[in-house]
Structures are given as structure tokens and as C-alpha cells.
Amino acid sequence: MNLPSVTVKQLLEAGVHLGHKTFRWNPKMSTYIFGSKNSIHIIDLVQTLEMLNVALVEIHKCISLGGKILFVSTKKQAAETVSLLGKDTSQFYVNHRWLGGMLTNWKTISNSIKRYKKLSEDLKKEVTGFTKKEVLKMGVQRDKLERSLGGIADMKKTPDMIFIIDVNVEDLAVKEALKLNIPIVAIVDTNSDPTGISFPIPGNDDARRAINLYCDLVKQTILEAQKNIISGKNEKQEVKEKIEEPKNEKNKKNEASSKPKKKSFITAIKSKIIAPKNEKNKKNEASSKPKKKSFITAIKSKIIASKKAK
Fold it and tell me: At what angle are helices 208-309 and 45-64 packed, to 10 degrees?
């Protein structure tokens, strides 16, 4: 397992240690706060580094077992980064607005996804059979659905893990994930509530540099895990081929041994049919030979008799 290496220096340069104002803090985050400076809380980066590595290990496990991750962040700073992360790693993402019941009311959401796919297919056709006004309306509907559901259009079931940036903004996503017992990896700032988060990562969830750092680390981890899946599949195929080779050889031997048996059976039947014919022929020959002998002997006897008479 080759996880991306991170140092405290990198975290400091990205501004991960900077929290919110001291009067905006959440007391449940006190264990992760190192201190305060200029009325701003400073996050303990030693704990951040440890918990970040634990979260990356869990993400690697999830992907290597064939699981899927849903990335959630509807903040302006993180929306574009999250969408790129989802597309690059072939995972799902929500970066515009979290619709209520996106996980718990999957049946309704799946109907909306079908509607979105149908609209996109209809608009791709050259001859749609609709008026210009209808096409414009359909385009507006398609764009609206694409913003909300474009990142989960290929999601056929609930994800195996959720990665959230800013728990306060995405509180609905956290509640739904907790209800369905889906493990959560989340960036928790000094004003966040870490209760219920399976793998919290204390750090700044507002700075673009910090968000880009988190996303790059997750991206590298997922790509590494996907390589292991491909290599594992190739190994399985090789093992299958090795197992099948001796089986094929055995089958060939069995076929080779079974063919003579079939021939012997056929020859036995033929011999049974031919044997009585041979016997009949022999009898006929035997019956015909004595006749020839008797005829010859009869002539000889006549000649001898005539000589004697003379």
C-alpha cells in the first residue's frame, strides 16, 4: 500500500492549521485545537497528520475492495475541485446543492436521474419533433438537473463511503449517511461538530490551498488503489488459466481414451453382423466342394469302367 506522503510543513504552507475566530468555535473540537493567536484558533497539525493518514488508509481499503466514494461539497471554493476529483477518479460527486433524500429517498432521486438522461438524449437528436420554445424549456430543465444530479447520474446504489468538506454546510448529507450507516470521512474545522463522523480530519475547510491539498491526496490514494484492483484482476485471470490448463489436458486424454472404445464397440457390432455371413459362406463352399468332387469321381469311374469293358 503506497500512500502519498504528507509532512507538517506542507500542511502549514497550505494553511490547514488556521481555524475560525475564537468566539465561533465548537467546544467539541477542543481536543484538536493547539491554541489561539490573534483571536484565531490554531489546529494541532500532529493530530491532523495522524488522522489524515488513517482516513487515507480507509479510502484505499474501500476502493481496493471495489467500493465507490461520494464526494460532497457545495461551497464555491471547493465545487470545481470536487467535480474534477470525481471525474479524474471515476467516482461520484455533488457540488451544486444537496437535494433532501438524495440517499434516503433514492427511488425518487433515481426517477429524476432517468428524466435527466431522457432529456439529454432528446436534445442530442437532430430532429427532435419539438418547437423552438419547447427545446429551450427542455434545455433549461436539463441544465438544472445536470447541476444537481450530473455527478451521480451513473450511481445505481448508495455509495460505500462519503467524503465531505465542511460538515456544517453539508449537515443534511451527514444525517442521511448516519441514518444509512455509511462511513464518513470529513474535514472538520474549529466550528464543526465531529460527532458521528467515522474518520474526522481536523483542518481548515475554507482555504482553497487546503482544499486542493486534501483533494490531491485523496486522488493519489484512489488511483493507487485502482491500480491494485487491475493487477489483482490480472493475477486472478492467470490463476484461472493455470487451473484450466491441466483440466483441458485431462479432457483431451479422456477424449483420446474414449474414441478407441467407441471404435471397438462399432467393430464388435460389425463382427457380430459379419460372423454369421462368413459362416453361411463357409457352409455353402463346403456344400459346393463335395458336389464338384462327386462329379469328377463319377466321370473317372465311367472312364475306368469303359476301359475294363474293353
Answer: 20
